[in-house]
Design goal:
Blueprint (H helix, E strand, L loop, with lengths): L14 H16 L12 H12 L2 H13 L8 H13 L4 E3 L8 E6 L4 E6 L13 H22 L2 E6 L8 H7 L8 E3 L2 E3 L10 E10 L15 H15 L8 E8 L10 E10 L2 H22 L2 E6 L12 H12 L21 H5 L4 E2 L2 E3 L10 H6 L3 H23 L1 H13 L18
Parallel strand pairs: 3-4, 3-5, 5-11, 6-12
Antiparallel strand pairs: 1-2, 2-4, 7-9, 7-10, 8-9
Helix pairs in contact: 2-5, 2-12, 3-4, 3-5, 3-12, 5-12, 7-8, 9-12
Length: about 450
């Protein structure tokens, strides 16, 4: 008798995750607090900034929930922009909507001249699962930090601006803004990201997107297959080649893809087939090498199958790995300790649990931080329905207030402490200084 077909997939074994969870819990219990050698803003100024966040906490919680309840994909975040603009203008702030040529970018500024800190807000959601990355929390914390700083920027010196950055989830809004000059007069940038732990500086990978389109010769798949050249064979060979490549890349690199076009009918040799791949790595140089090797795979698949290939790199802007400014990140950790949060140093939470963000593109132009803010229980993964639910809980509301305070105080420290600013600048220079992002991957052999 024929065995019945499998009706359900295998359930992945959780042993590896359970082992990592146990290890992480032990490391967390033994972690030393992150310290800073810099003084930052005075106690009086810090108390005043904190009070400014506290008196807005009801509005900030409401803003986070409103954005969460109206998820919008990248470059279409009209409701979120309207909600932020309404709150800012109610406090007397001038808001520029459509900043730098992007319809759902916004900018508000307080104070005059330099130094200038930009507080970055994200508010785009994911298709199908809404705010499964918690950008509603990012939005509300940034708005709260800006408003609190605006209250006291005269005493701090310099200026602060809120920059609403659309389309982090794949659209590369920050790179578009950067190329339009959004960071040309900014000295430091701060933002945070919700997570399942509080972390001062968690690594994010660089990422490039590539679409490969194979063109063959159509033929009747039964009568005259020998007169065809199968574009799907080209895609399958490329997919298999990428699978073989994975064995021989650094363990921190990632390559993953899907077949987006495999032909129309089984009795016609496909004339066109296509696939989309994401390639990720820890540094610009290693990402460039990974892309070079992938290019060889794509070209080899075409040679194997007698098809032509069009390798289309960067239909979206490439994302750079984050260059965390540790001097600023340490100030954030110290300030969050006053909120009762243990902000972990790098290396406690497994660093393979990560993705990519266009904040990396900002961090190689100006000193920047991107700490992680715990809004969910340990083990809750980003980009899941579970995380979307966690981003609209009382714990997330509390995190909004804490995070806004932490960002505001970090920016206040930077504006008030000349020695800290010098350390931030020196660290940025030692890390490589300003990179010319548009030119990084425009080299021969990458299909551009």
């Amino acid at each position: 008798m024929t065995e019945p077909l499998r009706s359900t997939p295998d359930k992945p074994d959780p042993t590896y995750l359970e082992t990592l969870a146990g290890r992480t819990a032990r490391l967390v219990s033994r972690a030393e607090p992150v310290s800073s050698e810099h003084a930052g803003a005075s106690d009086a100024l810090a108390r005043a900034v904190t009070d400014s966040v506290e008196r807005r906490q009801a509005g900030l919680r409401a803003l986070s929930r409103e954005v969460h309840d109206h998820p919008e994909e990248g470059f279409s975040e009209h409701h979120a922009v309207e909600a932020v603009t309404r709150m800012l203008r109610a406090e007397g702030n001038d808001v520029e909507v459509g900043a730098y040529g992007l319809e759902t970018a916004l900018r508000a500024r307080a104070g005059e001249g330099r130094p200038r800190v930009a507080v970055l807000a994200e508010y785009d959601a994911l298709p199908g699962i809404g705010h499964a990355c918690g950008h509603n929390v990012i939005c509300a914390t940034a708005v709260g930090a800006f408003c609190a700083l605006a209250d006291h920027v005269g005493a701090l010196g310099g200026s602060v601006e809120l920059l609403g950055t659309p389309a982090e989830e794949g659209g590369g809004g920050k790179e578009v803004l950067a190329r339009a000059g959004a960071f040309d007069e900014v000295d430091a940038a701060v933002m945070l990201h919700p997570f399942d732990y509080d972390i001062a500086a968690h690594p994010f990978l660089g990422r490039r997107v590539v679409e490969v389109v194979y063109t063959g010769v159509a033929a009747h798949a039964s009568a005259m297959p020998f007169m065809g050249r199968n574009a799907l064979d080209g895609v399958v060979a490329a997919y298999t080649g990428v699978a073989a490549l994975r064995q021989h890349i650094p363990p921190t690199d990632r390559v993953h893809g899907i077949i987006t076009d495999g032909g129309a009918r089984a009795n016609v040799v496909p004339e066109r087939a296509a696939a989309l791949f994401y390639l990720r790595s820890t540094g610009p140089e290693t990402l460039a090498d990974l892309c070079r090797r992938a290019q060889g795979v794509f070209e080899g698949a075409a040679a194997m199958t007698g098809t032509a290939v069009d390798v289309r790199w960067d239909p979206q802007p490439p994302y750079l790995p984050i260059r965390h400014n540790q001097s600023l990140a340490a100030r954030y950790a110290v300030r969050m300790a006053s909120r009762g949060r243990q902000v972990l140093p790098t290396g406690i939470v497994p660093e393979t649990f990560t993705g990519s963000t266009d904040l990396g593109n900002v961090s190689v132009r100006v000193p920047a931080i991107h700490p992680m803010l715990a809004v969910a229980s340990p083990g809750t993964s980003l980009h899941t329905s579970e995380f979307a639910a966690a981003a609209a809980t009382e714990a997330a509301d509390e995190a909004v207030v804490d995070g806004a305070t932490g960002l505001a105080l970090t920016a206040a420290d930077y504006l008030a402490d000349e020695v800290l600013r010098a350390a931030v600048a020196a660290e940025f220079a030692d890390g490589g200084g300003v990179l010319d992002v548009p030119s990084l991957f425009g080299v021969a052999g990458t299909g551009e």
